[in-house]
Amino acid sequence: MINDQVTLHPFILYFRDVNSKLRSHSLCALSNYLEHNTSVVHVFQTYVVKYIKHNLPKVEKLVYFSDGSGSQYKNKKNFVNICHHQKDFALKAEWHFFASCHGKNACDGVGGTTKRELSKVSLQRTTTHQILNIDQIYSFCKEKLRGITYFLVKEEEIKETH
Fold it and tell me: What is the pTM of this model?
């Protein structure tokens, strides 16, 4: 039996509630598309922006923070994406970069928790009930891991979008 590999792309959403209290929510895109590039990040952004518009309809601007990964964020394609963010998502945006390889942040906790829980439950299951593919991973995460909103982004969607 062969198991599939999966890309996890975590996001932390920080926002102020109606009482101006700072809140956060964890999000994570799961995909069976394994390339890590700007086009994939853009597809993941569509899910995050849709979530924000549905749950926080008064948001007018997004401020992104990421590391300086050249393949995903700190490159000319991503700068073009930011220039077109208003047109693509009907929200203003700006992007800030942390220094590359400079420590961990809250997003690493989202990915780490997801991987740890998947590994733990997989080890506890019998050989006939292992979690082996993207659909099983998404189903487990959505049903069992509270406090993180998961998005399933299939390889086919990424390929047809870009």
Answer: 0.87
